[in-house]
Specification:
This protein is about 75% helix and about 0% strand. It is an all-alpha fold.
């Protein structure tokens, strides 16, 4: 049997893989894990398959990550460091200091839309996690979603006390805002990748979503008339209540 002669490329490939530095190897495993999880979900992916995708033994995976939980945490940490999961305070710190409501919401929207566009793989991974009731979904919620609610809700409460914004539960406002962003991203990354229904830049989407959030969709005169009608009904109800009390 003749011995197969390796080409220069083959010779280089094998030693490099074997000599890969610890941190490099760790990142390679993370990339392979994210890719497989996003394609097959968590239940459909084993550590053996992650090892095969990385071209290493399963034992090597556990050498870098003692268990799957450690691997999940490392994925979130990696995404946070790469900018995929920034804390909202880091994104809009200056706008908050300047009390610029439009900039706060617009910058957050643009940041989220850009991340979803640049990293659809992680977006799909999170959807798998949520649908499977996987612990990574709960970890992401606590580390990345809840802080957005608390941060924006806090901003809304302060602004409401100062009479800048209307009387409404801040959590409803935040959910409406996040809902617009997430639905738009899902359309772009999953259902309508060719943007046949709506082709709009992230900048324009962030600006218009912020317009809807802060100003609504009614023309100003109609909005003012509606507010007047609401005030009138409140006054009428107040008069009736007062009349009933006197009786």
């Amino acid at each position: 049997m003749s011995k197969q002669i390796s080409t220069p490329n083959d010779i280089n490939a094998i030693p490099i893989a074997a000599r890969m530095a610890g941190e490099e190897r760790r990142m390679q495993i993370l990339r392979c894990a994210v890719s497989l999880f996003s394609q097959r979900g968590f239940r459909g992916t084993t550590t053996k398959e992650i090892a095969q995708a990385a071209g290493i033994s399963e034992a090597m995976v556990f050498r870098h990550f003692a268990n799957k939980e450690e691997l999940y945490t490392a994925i979130l940490d990696h995404k946070a460091c790469s900018g995929t999961a920034l804390h909202p305070k880091d994104v809009v710190a200056q706008a908050v200091l300047e009390k610029d409501d439009r900039a706060v919401f617009e910058q957050l929207a643009y940041s989220a839309l850009s991340v979803h566009e640049l990293d659809p793989e992680f977006h799909r991974l999170l959807l798998h996690a949520a649908l499977e009731g996987h612990e990574l979904a709960a970890m992401f919620w606590e580390r990345n979603v809840r802080p957005v609610y608390e941060f924006l809700g806090g901003c809304r409460s302060i602004r409401k006390q100062k009479g800048v914004m209307i009387e409404i539960d801040p959590r409803v406002v935040v959910r409406a805002f996040i809902g617009m962003i997430i639905h738009h991203s899902l359309n772009n990354t999953l259902w309508d990748q060719k943007r046949s229904l709506l082709k709009i830049s992230n900048e324009a989407a962030a600006r218009q979503f912020t317009d809807i959030l802060l100003n609504g969709v009614l023309a100003r005169k109609a909005a003012a008339r509606r507010q007047g009608d609401q005030n009138g009904r409140k006054a009428t109800n107040g008069s009736r209540s007062a009349s009933g009390t006197k009786k």
